[in-house]
Amino acid sequence: MAPAALHSNPFVAGGVIKDRRLFVGRKSELDELTNCMTGAQSTSVNIHGPRRIGKSSLLYHFWQTWPDRVTDYRKYAPVFISLEGEAGVSKEAFLGAVARELLELRWIGDIGWARSALNPPPKTLPEFGRAVEVFSKNGILPVICLDEFEKWLEHTDEFDNDFYSYLRGLLNLNHMMMIITSKEKLTKYRHRYGLTSPFFNLVYYIPLGPFTKEEAEELVRLPAGREPGAVAVLSADEQRFALQLGKRHPYKLQMACRLLVEARNHGKDFAWVRRRFDDQVANLPEPKDAARVLSRKARRVARFAFLDVPIALGGWARLIGVRKDDLMNWLFGVLTIVVIVLVVLGVVAPDKVADLIRSIGW
């Protein structure tokens, strides 16, 4: 008996999604990127978000599909540069990578002035600046889609303030545009690494988070192929289980769907999928809990208002000769007002006031 045919697996868990047919959602973010590129004056963009949230795939998909989003594609020259390789180690490698990618564009490589500007590839920032200025004078905007920005931060001796400031100058002159992915906002790296260049304050920010409910449902319904009439790979029960496991997190959802296809191909059950899923996502950082962050901030504010400030005021009062008894009476008066406010706001129940008073030693 011939073995049963294996089901094709359209789900990509980890790595950049390079098959444009398998990319799902992010319509509003793609529209923002397009508007920033095609506006009266281009605006550079920082796409930021936690690891495995889909930043690289979004940037790659925009680079893949941007000609479908503009009326005159010949006005733009987007290139995709990953800093995972040599471009993240030296300025010369980065500038050379941009030049090579620009010449790969079919409507650029055939133009005489473009070949003259980029061949041989620029090795210094002034050479690069003159090259992109030629593009600007000829009505073409180079757009550098830069992935994995943190790699530059591993080589601050090479990519220093002068480097970033030179790029900032080119962006200010509208000679080029940059779309940069990073785990955190660029401004945070500026403070963390002691970088003073205004480059880090230039960009428009697009925070990337979980899918919308509609995007998550679209992902679990992916078919094995994109032929007309193709049906979803996962059954309705499998789709529900995938959503239960992955919620709306892009990587987790892709992983859940991928494991469900593998389970069906090898005769495994949902319990096997859950075990494998838990193992795969165990080291994935969880997004910050907004409630916990707010709680920590509230505690810091409360400490400042009710501990640090009163202590400071107490010291000041002694300096100007306020007697201890007067100070204690004032303090008890303030505490009385605080307790009344807490009762009115419903924070403390009236029958608990006595317990509160005893707990603070009144």
What are the defining features of this structure?
362 residues, alpha/beta, Rossmann fold, 3 domains, five-stranded parallel β-sheet, flat, disordered N terminus
Summary of the model, kept short:
This protein is of the alpha/beta class and 362 residues long.
Report what the structure shows.
With 362 residues, this protein is of the alpha/beta class. It has 16 helices and five strands. The longest helix has 30 residues. It starts with 26 loop residues before the first helix and ends with a helix. The N terminus is likely disordered.
CATH fold-level name of the largest domain = Rossmann fold
Structural class of the secondary structure composition? alpha/beta
What level of helicity do the residues show?
40-55%
> For the residues shown, what is the average pLDDT?
84
CATH class descriptor of the largest domain: Alpha Beta
Tell me the total number of β-strands. 5
Largest sheet: 5 strands, parallel
Number of domains: 3
The low-confidence parts are: 1-5, 289-295
For this structure, what is the CATH homologous superfamily of the largest domain?
A: P-loop containing nucleotide triphosphate hydrolases
| Radius of gyration over C-alpha positions, nearest whole angstrom | 29 Å
Read across the widest sheet, the strand sequence of neighbours is 2-3-4-1-5
Query: Tell me, what's the shape?
Result: flat
Query: What CATH architecture of the largest domain do you see?
Result: 3-Layer(aba) Sandwich
Helix and strand run: HEHEHHHHEHHEHEHHHHHHH
Q: Total helix count?
A: 16
